[in-house]
TrEMBL record:
<dbReference type="GO" id="GO:0004550">
    <property type="term" value="F:nucleoside diphosphate kinase activity"/>
</dbReference>
<dbReference type="InterPro" id="IPR023005">
    <property type="entry name" value="Nucleoside_diP_kinase_AS"/>
</dbReference>
<keyword id="KW-0963">Cytoplasm</keyword>
<dbReference type="GO" id="GO:0005524">
    <property type="term" value="F:ATP binding"/>
</dbReference>
<dbReference type="GO" id="GO:0005737">
    <property type="term" value="C:cytoplasm"/>
</dbReference>
<keyword id="KW-0547">Nucleotide-binding</keyword>
<keyword id="KW-0808">Transferase</keyword>
<feature type="active site" description="Pros-phosphohistidine intermediate">
    <location>
        <position position="115"/>
    </location>
</feature>
<keyword id="KW-0546">Nucleotide metabolism</keyword>
<dbReference type="InterPro" id="IPR001564">
    <property type="entry name" value="Nucleoside_diP_kinase"/>
</dbReference>
<keyword id="KW-0067">ATP-binding</keyword>
<keyword id="KW-0460">Magnesium</keyword>
<keyword id="KW-0597">Phosphoprotein</keyword>
<dbReference type="GO" id="GO:0006228">
    <property type="term" value="P:UTP biosynthetic process"/>
</dbReference>
<protein>
    <recommendedName>
        <fullName>Nucleoside diphosphate kinase</fullName>
        <ecNumber>2.7.4.6</ecNumber>
    </recommendedName>
</protein>
<feature type="binding site">
    <location>
        <position position="85"/>
    </location>
    <ligand>
        <name>ATP</name>
    </ligand>
</feature>
<dbReference type="InterPro" id="IPR034907">
    <property type="entry name" value="NDK-like_dom"/>
</dbReference>
Length: 154
């Protein structure tokens, strides 16, 4: 099973959509391996968005992402990174397909409700950045027999 990071962003928090967003991932069948609310500080923002540090919009992202606490989720499932990215929709919410989180609930490029890891490698680094090992949980879900075929469970 693959793990990925999701951040429920300040716009979703301010709009009271955290539960709605989380429920979309749960309804799909992804397992919550870790969850916590956190206020992103300057150091964490610089580390998380280091790939954008030279962009002119970097200060705007940092200001936006520190407006409210966020909810960090570590989700688990087969091909979890790709599944979560598909559920989120494209970055620009105005162009996201109906049925996706951003397509159904968002109107902005930046205030687009969620961050989702963009690759398996990135997911590993991001999960480690936001969660200590002891904050992640492995447990059996009885419903797993109804989420995946027996040959998919491994």
């Amino acid at each position: 099973m693959e793990r990925t990071l999701i951040l429920i962003k300040p716009d979703a928090m301010a709009r009271g959509l955290a539960g709605t967003v989380l429920s979309r991932f749960e309804a799909k069948g992804l397992k919550i391996a870790g969850v916590k609310m956190i206020q992103l500080d300057e150091a964490l923002l610089k580390a998380h968005y280091s790939h954008l540090a030279d962009k002119p919009f970097f200060p705007t992202i940092c200001e936006f992402m520190s407006r409210t606490p966020v909810i960090a989720l570590c989700l688990e499932g087969l091909e979890a990174v790709e599944v979560c990215r598909s559920l989120c929709g494209v970055t620009n919410s105005r162009k996201a397909a109906p049925g996706t989180i951003r397509g159904d609930l968002g109107m902005s490029m930046q205030a687009n409700l969620v961050h989702a890891s963009d690759s398996v490698e990135t997911a590993k680094a991001e999960v480690a950045r936001f969660f200590k090992d002891e904050e992640l949980f492995g447990y059996e879900q009885p419903v797993i027999n109804f989420l995946y075929a027996s040959d998919e469970r491994g």
